[in-house]
Specification:
Length: 612
């Protein structure tokens, strides 16, 4: 029995050995077939299975001023990729050594990226935003090294540097929070740049285009065999602003050359609320956030002031507020504009003495406004009381935001007895006198004062300021109207009150403290202001609006120079240059009556289809 069992075991062992030999022969034959006989065929099959996708950033939508100047555009740039092929260490070293000088990266850093690509078998971005001069040399080098590929893209470019930078904003990389909240429909990637401030952030969805990409077939060494698909990008939509290029330029240059180089300037169209200029100094160049990677920047180049003083800086309006005090007085039937009040440089309120900035002698309403006599406004405010002044303040929406569609706008502070009573505090005669000349707790932003100037120029219409007129799609050609006139409130003063305010402000420009804003053949109305500053030199204000003779005012301007010491000397020349830049533009000249009627007839014919 034992012998039979042993025989059966030996037979089974022999059978297993035979099967093992046969299996080994089959594997050996298969390996010979793969490695030797059909090596080229299988290599080609392997090569066909290797594809790489290189994305191309789409051009962002452009930004234009109202007069067609392109202030945000796109410039050509290039990105350099390694397609993840296998290389020997010596080849990697030579590649890194030859490319590193053009990419402004260290040899070690570049070698790490190359090894990462070789390990993963996926494409690796070696450098982006390369300038055209650098790519000339790189294009020659890529022919000597397999796996290197240059792809053309675009980068954001601001041709006028710091022009309207606080309004435009800038681009930056997404942080982790933004990446998690990204809109997948817009095709964001980890390397995508997005708007970080201003218009670039506010209209990110409209400005961002649809990225393209190149689908490549590569071999095992990363060499490009063919382009499978070249998916073309689609540019973002273009944004058209209400800004006037010349007025904005005059505002920025004026602030730069001012006594301190710090301040804000705003211009509005009083007929619509459209923003013609908005400058905050110092400005910054948004190009520093999207530099060519092969261009070296100064270490301090990104230390910028993002604070938009035009909408976030709050200060006492000083003597520009005397227009409100004057309006409150004019609303009273008993107020006499010809009554003279003597100014001896001070006003005795009883508890204390309030000083005037000068000694003006006997002055009436017209001279009191023209020469900004504090004593005159102390006297009329004490006579009519602070409630009347607060009432007119509220008519023009002081203490409330202007409603402009920009983040971070501050409301300022309304100052009056009602507000003080709500806070369960007392109101004193000194508060009334401070209020009458725009001091004390009263605070405004430059934009708020510009909104008031525009409302005054339009005889009461308080418009919401807007800065984008339309957005035009580069894909469909459709136009989306964004900005339009919107009246928030109407300051219903008597028509005679507006007539007298216009007369007083015209007299102030022609013969008073606002003479620096005078322009030949243009009706200019203005008021200066010098705001007391307990922390240093006084601040300078200048408020004005202008019109062609016989026409309604078409521009309102406010200039603020921080620590400028005087409104007339520091802010006046800037306001003058802004007004002149506007009225020097032939496009702003009023259409002749006959021409306007002809244009309307042509339009009517177009609608009816009738011949002339």
């Amino acid at each position: 029995m034992a012998t039979v069992t042993k025989i059966l075991f030996n037979q089974r062992l022999k059978t297993m050995m035979v099967l093992a030999v046969i299996a080994g022969i089959v594997i050996a034959v298969r390996l010979i077939d793969i490695q030797i006989l059909r090596h080229n065929d299988y290599l080609q099959l392997a090569e066909r299975n290797r594809t790489q996708i290189l994305y191309q950033t789409a051009p962002r939508g452009r930004v234009f001023t109202a007069d067609g100047v392109e202030i945000a555009s796109n410039a050509p740039s290039f990105s350099l990729y390694y397609l993840g092929g296998q290389q020997d260490p010596a080849s990697f070293y030579r590649l890194a050594r030859d490319f590193a000088p053009y990419l402004h990266v260290s040899l070690v850093e570049l070698l790490e990226k190359l090894h990462t690509g070789a390990k993963s078998g996926k494409s690796v971005l070696l450098a982006e935003n390369l300038s055209t001069p650098s790519t000339v040399a790189l294009q020659e080098l890529q022919y000597y090294y397999p796996g290197i590929y240059l792809i053309e893209e675009t980068k954001r470019h601001y041709p006028y540097g710091d022009f309207a930078s606080h309004l435009l904003g800038y681009l930056g990389s997404m942080d982790e929070r933004q990446w998690r909240k990204r809109d997948n429909k817009l095709g964001y990637r980890l390397t995508s740049k997005i708007g970080k401030n201003g218009i670039e952030q506010k209209y990110e969805k409209e400005l961002k285009g649809k990225d393209g990409g190149v689908f490549l077939e590569v071999d095992y060494r990363g060499r490009v065999k063919s382009i499978i698909e070249d998916k073309k990008w689609a540019a973002g939509s273009d944004v058209y602003l209400t800004l006037d290029f010349a007025v904005q330029k005059a505002a920025q240059e004026g602030l730069k050359n001012s006594l301190t180089g710090r301040g804000a300037a705003v211009a509005l169209d009083p007929r619509t609320g459209a923003v013609l200029a908005m400058a905050s100094a110092p400005e910054y160049d948004p190009n520093i956030f999207v530099p060519y990677s092969d261009q070296m920047l100064a270490p301090t180049s990104k230390k910028i002031n993002e604070y938009n003083l035009a909408i976030q800086g709050i200060y006492p309006p000083a003597s520009t507020f005397k227009v409100i005090t004057g309006a409150a007085a004019l609303e009273s039937d008993s107020f006499d504009t010809e009554r003279k009040i003597s100014c001896y440089g001070k006003y005795d309120s009883g508890p204390r003495i309030f000083k005037c900035w000068g000694t003006h002698g006997p002055v009436d309403f017209w001279e009191g406004m023209a020469h900004s006599c504090d004593v005159y406004f102390y006297a009329i405010a004490a006579q009519m009381g602070s409630a009347a002044i607060e009432r007119v303040q509220r008519m023009f929406m002081f203490g409330r935001p202007t409603g402009i569609d920009l983040p971070g706008e501050k409301a300022g502070n309304l100052y009056g007895p009602t507000r003080r009573a709500r806070n369960k505090s007392y109101w004193f005669i000194g508060d009334t006198l401070n209020l009458s000349i725009g001091q004390g707790e009263l605070l405004v932003t430059p934009l708020k004062l510009a909104q008031f100037a525009a409302a005054l120029a339009s005889r009461g219409n308080v418009y919401r300021p807007y800065y984008v007129s339309k957005i035009v799609s580069n894909q469909t050609g459709k136009t989306k109207i964004v900005g339009k006139p919107e009246i928030l409130q109407v300051a219903e003063l008597q028509p005679e009150t507006y007539d007298k305010l216009f007369k007083a402000l015209k007299h102030t420009v022609d013969n008073g403290t606002a003479r620096r804003a005078k322009i030949k053949d243009i009706d200019v109305y203005g008021k200066t202001g010098t705001a007391q500053n307990p922390h240093g030199a006084d601040h300078g204000w200048f408020m004005a609006f202008g019109a062609y003779p016989g026409e309604k005012p078409s521009i309102a301007v406010v200039v603020f120079v921080e620590n400028g010491e005087g409104g007339s000397s520091a802010a006046g020349p800037i306001a003058h240059d802004m007004l002149k830049a506007y009225f020097d533009n032939p496009q702003h000249k009023p259409v002749e009556k006959e021409q306007a009627e002809k244009t309307q007839d042509d339009y009517d014919e177009l609608l009816t289809g009738e011949d002339a």
